[in-house]
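[recover] target loaded
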């Protein structure tokens, strides 16, 4: 980074208008007696009459202290903004990870559960076990990534479901219809947190 660019950033981010204002005030105060003397008022309005003789070294020390305090204050605000931006970036990354994991779960649910349904009641317990494990894993991911209670309940509790003709057996069709609803809700939440 070039020196001119670096100085410009320091001036803008650390000192800003405060640096110029404090420098001007101290420079005016340090030279007030001289300015007042130009117009013949140094004996009446000079600062030396009120606060005693202040040496140039003292004014310079005051200027350095003021500059340091303004720099530290601005640095504090710059660091706060940096930390806020880092936290925002971390949240975006976390949201994207959640979206990716839920998208993977959705894909698994479609390919391994919905597209491989039980054909009879003998296969239903094994399929139901896989579906329960799938749901538990999806809910764990959502909890681990800080989804709201409403989002978790939305995926966990299906309630009334529209029956879809996915099987000739009504019991299996009901289970598949619930899975379709759950998969849709998982996809919605993945879309909400993803980019």
């Amino acid at each position: 980074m070039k020196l001119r660019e670096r100085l410009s950033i320091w001036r803008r981010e650390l000192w800003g208008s405060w640096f110029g204002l404090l420098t001007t005030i101290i420079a005016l105060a340090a030279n007030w007696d001289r300015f007042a003397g130009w117009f013949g008022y140094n004996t009446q309005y000079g600062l030396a009459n009120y606060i005693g003789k202040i040496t140039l070294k003292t004014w310079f020390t005051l200027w350095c202290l003021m500059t340091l305090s303004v720099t530290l204050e601005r640095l504090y605000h710059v660091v706060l903004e940096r930390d806020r931006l880092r936290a925002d970036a971390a949240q975006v990354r976390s949201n994207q990870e959640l979206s990716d994991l839920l998208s993977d779960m959705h894909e698994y649910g479609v390919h391994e559960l919905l597209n491989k349904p039980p054909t009879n009641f003998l296969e239903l317990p094994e399929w139901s076990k896989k579906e329960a494990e799938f749901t538990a894993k999806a809910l764990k991911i959502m909890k681990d990534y800080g989804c709201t209670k409403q989002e978790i309940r939305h995926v966990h509790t299906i309630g009334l479901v529209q029956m879809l003709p996915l099987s000739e057996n009504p019991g299996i069709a009901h289970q598949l219809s619930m899975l379709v609803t759950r998969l849709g809700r998982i996809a919605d939440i993945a879309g909400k947190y993803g980019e």
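[recover] notes: Residues 118 and 172 are 7 Å apart (CA to CA).
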